[in-house]
Design brief:
The protein is mainly beta. It has one domain: OB fold (Dihydrolipoamide Acetyltransferase, E2P) (Beta Barrel). The chain contains 2 helices and 10 strands; from the N terminus they run ββββββαββαββ. The strands form 3 sheets. The protein has a 5-stranded mixed beta barrel. Strand 7 (75-88) and strand 8 (94-107) form a beta hairpin. The longest helix has 10 residues, at 60-69. It is globular and about 60 Å long. The relative contact order is 0.19.
Length: 142
């Protein structure tokens, strides 16, 4: 028995690339970034955060959903399998790439965050009589 299963939660690195192939089948490819937090070793050495980039391919209905709703920065859950393919360039050099062929996808970015084209600006601090005052205090009903 063998198992080839990948589960990822990460952020889309750039706008997905959508293609329609023979028979009108929709395909989508995207990059997904996953990160491991940094930490400090007992001897004081800092180990920095590590980011891995994954190439993800989606087909048919999943690709159509990506085309309509998924954008750079969105958080996704992807489940699928690893596949490696190769090709030979014009110089005769063979290249290999490992990809995640998605079988399931869940969008984790809240709908309200996806629909907002500009992020809300944080409240501005103002100086009054030498004291820094949060401008939200003026809006409080109590």
């Amino acid at each position: 028995m063998s198992l080839n299963k990948v589960m990822l939660i990460g952020n889309v690195g750039k706008e997905p690339v959508i293609r329609y192939i023979e028979g009108g089948v929709c395909t989508a490819s995207l990059t997904l970034a996953t990160s491991t937090p940094g930490y400090r070793l007992p001897n004081g050495t800092e180990v920095p955060e590590r980011t891995e980039w994954h190439n993800v391919l989606l087909w048919r209905r999943l690709a159509e959903v990506v085309e309509r709703y998924v954008h750079k920065g969105d958080k996704l859950y992807i489940e699928g399998e690893l596949r490696t393919r190769n090709w030979t360039d014009k110089k005769g050099q063979t290249h290999y790439i490992t990809e995640v062929w998605a079988k399931e996808m869940e969008m984790l970015t809240p709908r309200s965050a996806r629909e907002t084209t500009t992020a809300p600006q944080p409240p501005q601090e103002t100086k009054q009589e030498g004291n820094a005052v949060d401008s939200r205090q003026e809006e409080l009903p109590f």
